[in-house]
Design goal:
Elements (H helix, E strand, L loop, with lengths): L2 E3 L13 E3 H22 L23 E7 L3 E8 L2 E9 L3 E2 L5 E2 L1 H14 L11 E6 L6 H11 L3 E4 L2 E5 L1 E6 L2
Parallel strand pairs: 3-8, 8-11
Antiparallel strand pairs: 1-2, 3-4, 4-5, 6-7, 9-10
């Protein structure tokens, strides 16, 4: 078995000859090196890469938010606002006047007429050569009936304009907002 001789020779009176076994010492050093290598590798996983480099051109400005119509359905009527981001440009209240159809459906003709007039006054995409749609966001409470939601969607589809390659189509791309 390998040992380390720590004797200093015959000059001393007391014997300083000791034998230290090398195999356990080498095993300990190998375990220590393995542990340090493993922890160094896992320490890199916890690091976040931080840099100011972002994709895109440095001079590129973020796009401006588009103008949107927000239709908020309430108990007594509709609250309509044209917004750019969080900034309210125009705000209107339209009374809730349902028209019951003979076959059991419901419509809001006053809302449809108001939306047509309001879009002509405030809509962004009115040119017949512009293929883009104006955006409308419908805010409906969870307690609203299905017939009311369908009636409001029908009113939002009432304003129409000509598009390239089409004759007449709705002016709004409608999305729902979670309330």
């Amino acid at each position: 078995m390998a040992t380390i001789d720590s004797g200093a020779g015959a000059r001393r009176v007391r014997s300083t000859h000791h034998e230290l076994p090398l195999v356990p010492f080498i095993d300990f050093l190998l375990c220590l090196v393995t542990f340090l290598l493993a922890t160094a590798g896992f320490a890199n996983f916890a690091r976040l890469s931080t840099s100011a480099n972002v994709p895109g051109k440095a001079s590129e400005l973020p796009p401006l938010p588009s103008k949107r119509l927000h239709v908020d359905m309430r108990e007594r009527g509709f609250h309509l606002t044209w917004r750019v981001g969080e900034t309210v440009l125009v705000s209107h209240d339209v009374p809730l006047e349902p028209f019951e159809l003979a076959r059991g459906g419901r419509r809001y003709p006053e809302l449809a007429k108001f939306l047509d007039r309001d879009w002509r006054a405030n809509g962004s995409h009115q040119s017949p050569t512009d293929p883009a749609l104006d955006e409308a966001v419908l805010h409906v409470p969870n307690s609203a009936e299905y017939e009311d939601v369908v009636a409001v969607l029908d009113a939002l589809r009432a304003p129409e304009r000509a598009y390239p390659g089409q004759q007449l189509a709705s002016v709004f791309a409608v999305s729902f907002a979670a309330d």
